[in-house]
Amino acid sequence: MANPAQDLGGKLLAQIEPRDGGTWVALAGTVTEIADFTPLTKLRSPLRLDLIGIERINSLGVRSWIHFVRDCELAGLELSFERCSPVMIQQLSMISNFMGTRSRVKSLFVPYLCPMCNAEQLSLLEVAPNGPLMVPPTIPCPKCRATMHLDELEEMYTGLLDGQGPRQRAYSTGSR
Ligand SMILES: [Zn+2]
Question: Domains plus CATH for the chain?
Answer without folding.
Answer: 6-172 (3.30.750.24)
